Amino acid sequence: MANAVALLLAGMAIAAGLPLWMLSACAAISFALLAYRCRGRWTPVGRFGAANTLTFARLGGIVGLPWLEPFALACVALLLFALDGADGWIARRTGLASDFGEFADKESDALLVLMLCAILYRLPDDFGVWILVPGALRYAFVLFVAVARPPARRERRTALAGWISALMILSLILCLATYPAYLSQTSAIVAAMTLLLVCSFAASTYRMYCAAGARKD
Fold it and tell me: What is the Cα–Cα distance from 217 to 207, expressed in whole angstroms?
């Protein structure tokens, strides 16, 4: 939960006008502390492993995005997105899959969305604060689960939710890659994907509350 609080506050700081590097610094510190706290539990055998190394290399790429121009940024972000899933495949192939690796992979995806949203928000053209919504959703969801304590504390990721998340990232990358030529068209796509992402998180919340009822039956 600490990671969610830190990055949500960093996102709010960006909305308030603070520089983008603060989000990068906050993310770097948060994930470094996470790796330190989980030392010895990185994998079933204790060592860090190739899969976690790839995940943290992706994280390093994500925190460096604010220093790139929009088109170069979009290309690097697309590469980082394409590498998503490779770390999980490596972990399963080497028998080193772990809760730490799964969490780090999931949070790196969330950070990529937040970073892309923050960068779009700070471009000269006015997107409006709504562009930060998709980036904040994952962290708001984590805080909601921690505070509300629904009957099922662990979310069940569906294939549809995975597709929506992937398309959300691709729409943000497309917006940056074509900036500013097709801004009106791509921002409309991002807005539509944001609505779908909100519905996806609402469905996840609903399933967490329905899970207990299903077990009782």
Answer: 15
